[in-house]
């Protein structure tokens, strides 16, 4: 993923106004809202945490996942927890009650606040998960994968996304 990211900017990443102290580190703002970024938090230790749902297309249909990402204080992903909810049978089956709350409790995600994260990817169940730069576009776009469920775009100081 980093090779894609570096190729995208040809060695000249945009400036980060997130106050990280390292102007060469590109970050995306994740700000909690009432919609797709409802579970963006900070842990007791000061790390960022995001719990979300994802889906992936497979030969048998669509597969649902619950995903929890943990980020260090510089926005680098340091851990991921992916729960396979199985293939959909008929329409959207939703998230089992308590699944997201259990993930939040496990990492002591206590403070609901905006966090800044670096693009990342990780592999689970044969799918790439993460915030992955889209190749071949005129403007920089970052997709929440594997389901293309969110698309982030500049200006990067704000939390701009579309679902």
Order of the strands making up the biggest sheet: 5-4-3-2-6
| Integer-rounded radius of gyration | 16 Å
Q: Classify the beta-strand content into a percent band.
A: 35-45%
Q: Would you tell me the overall average pLDDT?
A: 81
Please, how many domains? 1
Describe the structure.
The chain is mainly β and 163 residues long. The protein has one domain. The protein is 10% helix and 43% strand. The protein has two helices and twelve strands, in the order H-E-E-E-E-E-H-E-E-E-E-E-E-E. The strands form three sheets. It has a five-stranded antiparallel sheet with strand order 5-4-3-2-6, covered by helices on one side. Strands 8-9-10-11-12 form a five-stranded antiparallel sheet. Strands 1-7 form a two-stranded antiparallel ribbon. The longest helix has 8 residues, at 2-9. The protein is globular, with a radius of gyration of 16 Å.
Short note summarizing the structure:
It contains two helices and twelve strands, in the order αβββββαβββββββ.
Topology at a glance:
Elements lengths: L1 H8 L18 E3 L9 E4 L4 E11 L2 E11 L5 E11 L11 H8 L2 E4 L2 E3 L2 E5 L2 E7 L7 E5 L4 E4 L7 E2 L1
Antiparallel strand pairs: 1-7, 2-3, 2-6, 3-4, 4-5, 8-9, 9-10, 10-11, 11-12
Annotation keywords:
5-stranded antiparallel sheet, 163 residues, 43% strand, mainly beta, 10% helix, disordered N terminus
């Amino acid at each position: 993923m980093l090779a894609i990211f570096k190729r995208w900017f040809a060695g000249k990443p945009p400036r980060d106004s997130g106050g990280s102290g390292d102007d060469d580190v590109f970050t995306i703002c994740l700000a909690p809202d009432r919609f797709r970024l409802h579970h963006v938090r900070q842990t007791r230790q000061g790390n960022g945490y995001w719990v979300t749902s994802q889906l992936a297309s497979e030969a048998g249909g669509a597969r649902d996942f619950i995903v929890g990402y943990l980020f260090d204080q510089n926005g680098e992903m340091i851990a991921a927890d992916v729960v396979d909810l199985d293939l959909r049978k008929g329409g959207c089956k939703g998230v089992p009650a308590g699944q997201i709350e259990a993930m939040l409790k496990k990492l002591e995600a206590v403070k609901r606040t905006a966090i800044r994260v670096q693009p990342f990817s990780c592999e689970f169940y044969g799918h790439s998960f993460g915030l992955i730069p889209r190749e071949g576009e005129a403007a920089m776009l970052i997709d929440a994968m594997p389901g293309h469920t969110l698309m982030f775009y500049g200006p990067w100081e704000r939390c701009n996304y579309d679902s």
